Amino acid sequence: MAVPTFLNLPDRESKPRPKGVTAVIDSGLTLGGFRDFLESAHPYVDFVKFGWGTAVVTPTLDEKIAILRQHGIEFWFGGTLFEIAYAQGKLDEMVAWAKDLGVSHFEVSDGTIQMKTVEKARLIERLSADFLVLSEVGSKDAAEVMSPSQWIRQIRAELDAGAWRVIAEGRESGTAGIYRDTGDVRLGLIQELEEGGIDFDKMFFETPQKVQQVWFLSHLGPNVNMANIAPRDVIGLETLRLGLRSDTVKFSLPKIRD
Amino acid sequence: MAVPTFLNLPDRESKPRPKGVTAVIDSGLTLGGFRDFLESAHPYVDFVKFGWGTAVVTPTLDEKIAILRQHGIEFWFGGTLFEIAYAQGKLDEMVAWAKDLGVSHFEVSDGTIQMKTVEKARLIERLSADFLVLSEVGSKDAAEVMSPSQWIRQIRAELDAGAWRVIAEGRESGTAGIYRDTGDVRLGLIQELEEGGIDFDKMFFETPQKVQQVWFLSHLGPNVNMANIAPRDVIGLETLRLGLRSDTVKFSLPKIRD
Amino acid sequence: MAVPTFLNLPDRESKPRPKGVTAVIDSGLTLGGFRDFLESAHPYVDFVKFGWGTAVVTPTLDEKIAILRQHGIEFWFGGTLFEIAYAQGKLDEMVAWAKDLGVSHFEVSDGTIQMKTVEKARLIERLSADFLVLSEVGSKDAAEVMSPSQWIRQIRAELDAGAWRVIAEGRESGTAGIYRDTGDVRLGLIQELEEGGIDFDKMFFETPQKVQQVWFLSHLGPNVNMANIAPRDVIGLETLRLGLRSDTVKFSLPKIRD
Prior knowledge:
The structure is a homotrimer of 258-residue chains. Helices cover 36% and strands 14% of the residues of chain A. By secondary structure, chain A is α/β, with parallel strands linked by helices. The first copy, chain A, has a single domain (22-248), classed as Alpha-Beta Barrel (TIM Barrel). In chain A, strands 3-2-1-8-7-6-5-4 form an 8-stranded parallel β-sheet. In chain A, β7, α8 and β8 form a beta-alpha-beta unit. In chain A, α1 packs parallel to α2 (61-70) and α6 packs across α7 (187-195). Chains in contact: A-B, A-C, B-C.
């Protein structure tokens, strides 16, 4: 292997990592592209999410799951699929299907449909019996802005209900939830979450845009958990975590740049 | 196959579809990527267009065509190639070459060169003897804006001349023709086309951007014909047609969201 | 091969080309994608740069280099890797590693770290003993704007020091160096470089965005050297060089459009 070892780089834990996790979104990769991707990048991929309802129109889903197993990578289905199944009264069917597939993680979200807080907590609790539940907070509608105190209440309630991790909504585009519709990070929100005592190791931040990855790494450190990473950006994200790109070079050159 | 069947989803006709067509643009895929793409997504791909003059610099064009044949997918060459051949006085040569390849569809456009309306109609008529002609209306120059009545006159004239379908220009970028240079849909134009009695089943709308796909689906329904779809967006577009993504969830949850 | 030969197109020299060079940036392609890409597009690819520090996190670097050798394509490592090695006092180790790999080209840049002009010249001179040196001018920080006269002085000094080519910074995003943070070309800068007598055949312009490629081709001709070209854009760029796309159709239709 030609990979150079002459540099001093920040430590990165190897998989399974308790934090510094990279969760990739599959928005419809070809089967060949999926196989290539994981063969090349598996050391840097902790999870794959089959985005929103793409699983339903992926004829090669079985083959993709077999490839994930081969690399020991866990996966889950996008929250929108859960929301549709739930709203159609088909949650039992979805759970049975997921169990059949041997799925270990399950996302519970309310980014599209309306759901009462107690009902969401009840679902998290129920699904936690069978899965590690990722609950998602935040709306997919950029116009629906929640106050920081609502975010904090909801994150706490969902962890209390048994959520394994809480995902902070950003969409595949990075233009809702924790972002303004321009893609700018809602700085005040993240600051209030921190001051409010939220444990960021329990959070996955959806950071699809490079500039958003740079912001979270710069403010929360190289081991922040990030989700909705496009497959083509995984190598680039790893260089950002290690200070191998201009934007985060402070991680590899701490004395030279702050 | 792991694809879940527990949801109630809108009906989608299978291929060959009279409408609800997805026409993909190949802007220069690798041969391997092209093969992977069609193996994975062929049920959702009705046509492939070799964008503008890319065919001329694609050393593996024969192999790509063989793959299309294997999946029973028709294809055509971007209108710019026709326009250059025509303007160079080489249309006969281009037609002979296309016939040699067994091409069944042919695009006639004037998005780049100037062409009199009667001349374009004459060409459509002539080429219709050998091919199913797709004629394209609209300029590739975002500064050249045609009035809705011009659009209607031209679409009618080209269908009358024998065009099989009329393509509404949007470019690969989605920033000309039926769009402003910002990518915003020219709402008034589409509305006037509808009020003017244009048969949208005869139209292919170029909708490269997701937000444009969402707009056309929301306004013209899940079975609108769309062209200039990037290969990587085909699965995503299919989820939009089926109401499996937040933006068009009204298709799968009609009672819950309007 | 089905490629049509009926059109009159501008001449393009075949490889190795003294100018009209396309240098691709690999930002983290999969191994399979890399192989497919070069099998399909090798006639149009003159160089591959392993972007910034991606080489360090590319487990399949050896295999990628073997594929490049197979196609006779030269490569180099992004300047940021050099800058980090230099700043960590590990330049000797990096040079030894590069020699071991049989690398022929080497980038010397100061887009991230501060370096005195004489020190950069000294490094260019030193590395020119072992490599063809590409020196890069311009900052990766869009806020750090150099005056045109500084650009001219620096380009001259680096060529005098032995640089084989000088790269004009644009980043992978096209939003720094020769561009404003909006991606707009710094027109006045390019004009002053030309009036200042800079030999553009000695320059590689980083032109990641299509609109930037179109600008440089339109102003400096079809044989301008371009770098930071995304693999997926190589076929498209070749059509732009040959006048096979609307934006540069003047190259294939000189009498019709200017």
